[in-house]
Write a structure and sequence with these properties.
Layout: E1 4-9, E2 12-17, E3 21-24, E4 29-32, H1 39-45, H2 54-68, E5 73-76, H3 89-101, E6 106-110, H4 113-118, E7 128-130, E8 134-136, E9 139-141, E10 152-155, E11 160-165, E12 171-179, E13 183-185, E14 196-197, E15 205-210, E16 213-216
Parallel strand pairs: 4-5, 5-6, 6-7, 9-10, 10-13, 11-14
Antiparallel strand pairs: 1-2, 2-3, 3-4, 8-9, 11-12, 12-13, 12-15, 15-16
Pfam families: Metallophos (PF00149)
GO molecular function, one term: hydrolase activity
Keywords: Endonuclease, Hydrolase, Ligase, Nuclease
Length: 218
């Protein structure tokens, strides 16, 4: 079973998952930010030598989560597809085959900046597509990490990573969750997505992902 770290936020219990997602047990819901399906194929279409199989690997990780946690809904916090080049037949066929295996699952996409360039996913993926914010319980589910007037924001967009420093010049960049007073960030779910280093702030907590576990940074 994928490792999870339970936290309490806005009077709700959420599980931070080592597979770079959040599970909301009360809603039987998975929250995923920045999947960027088809990013590698988009780069290859431009002649860039990038790895193959990232879409398959991302979908296999998602399958593991759905097998491990009772789930009725998956909400993507923006950037489902990377760009126009993500509509390559190999990427879309893999997504369609995955969707057929999970036809009863409710899927929602909150449009992110890359979704606006890529266009909405094909209709046969049977995915509801909405603009931010999506208000759900005490949370405003968004792509952009901008504070909401009345709800705690769960967002993606920046692909947060945290730099752990060792002796001398040794350091390690790890994907992380950053929980703030008004806005909390999810790591990018997709492989081959890069990351932006966040810092430990006075009113925030950072949880890094490493060795298939979630670790609080003290």
């Amino acid at each position: 079973m994928p490792v999870h770290y339970p936290i309490h936020l806005a009077e709700e219990t959420l599980w931070l998952l080592a597979d770079k997602a959040v599970y909301w047990p009360a809603r039987k819901c998975l929250l995923i930010a920045d999947a960027h399906f088809g990013k590698a194929s988009a780069y290859r279409s431009l002649g860039q030598p990038v790895p193959q199989g990232t879409t398959t690997g991302n979908l296999q990780r998602l399958d593991r989560l759905l097998a491990a946690y009772p789930c009725e809904q998956v909400i993507f916090l923006g950037d489902f597809l990377h760009g126009p080049g993500s509509h390559a037949s190999g990427t879309l066929n893999a997504l369609r085959a995955w969707r057929e295996r999970h036809s009863d699952l409710s899927l929602t996409l909150i449009r992110g900046n890359h979704d606006k360039r890529a266009g909405d996913p094909p209709g046969d993926l049977n995915m509801e597509v909405v603009t931010e914010p999506l208000l759900m319980g005490p949370f405003a589910l968004q792509h952009e990490p901008q504070a909401h007037a009345s709800h705690h924001v769960l967002a993606g967009h920046v692909h947060p990573v945290y730099r752990l420093r060792g002796k001398g010049r040794q350091s390690l960049r790890l994907p992380c969750f950053q929980l703030g007073a008004e806005v909390s960030l999810l790591p990018a779910f997709g492989a081959f997505t890069g990351g932006y280093c966040v810092t430990m702030e006075e009113d925030s907590q950072v949880f890094v992902i490493g060795d298939h576990e979630v670790w609080p940074v003290h």
